[in-house]
Amino acid sequence: MFDAQTMAFLAVAAALAITPGADTLLVIKNSVRAGSRAGWATTWGILAGVMAHALLSALGLSVILAQSDRLFFVIKSLGAVYLVWLGCKALWQSSRPLPHADPNSVQLPATAAFREGLLTNVLNPKVAIFYIAFLPQFISVGDPVLAKSILLASIHNGFSLIWLGGLVWALSRGQHWFQRSGVQKALARVSGTLLVGMGVKLFLTER
């Protein structure tokens, strides 16, 4: 399955992985606010969400989403509301005083961080549409569709892991600076505002 199409997908996947979006913002927000453990958990949740879309696309279930205006609107609305909620949550947290400079002063369980990353992807119908419209271009007629889809999604996730994991590592190296109350509040306001904006943009986006 490692044919010319797969090699071409490598460059595309690398570009997709480093394109700034809700995933990057969420990892930065959780890493800065609650430490590297939360950042890694968020990253793994995001990767799980991408793989879920790839599997649904390969099994043909995403076709239903692509062809149903009502279902697309429902999922889009849920995803938009979720992004806005995450943004408002970050803005609310930025207004709260941080009693200590210790990263453990703000608790975000790994399960909650993983769930945030997972839902950010699963509730984004644009990801599902992207996978059902994009992946087939790199799958030949004789290829096993499910296996090839998993392979391509794994490549995409591999680059995403390098990018998002690199962000978590970089933020942990500068933890002392990032854990300053003023820096955290400023980053929370910026990420919160951008997440709200992305949620509104997602809601207003047509197919």
From TrEMBL:
Q: Enumerate the UniProt keywords alphabetically.
A: Cell membrane, Membrane, Transmembrane, Transmembrane helix
InterPro entries cross-referenced by the UniProt entry: LeuE-type
Mode of membrane association: Multi-pass membrane protein
Q: Tell me a GO cellular component.
A: plasma membrane
Query: Where does the chain cross the membrane?
Result: 40-64, 128-146, 151-171
What GO molecular function terms would the record report? Answer: amino acid transmembrane transporter activity
- Cell compartments where the protein resides: Cell membrane
Q: What's the protein called, per UniProt? A: Threonine transporter RhtB
User: What's the source species for this entry?
Assistant: Saccharospirillum salsuginis
Species classification: Bacteria, Pseudomonadati, Pseudomonadota, Gammaproteobacteria, Oceanospirillales
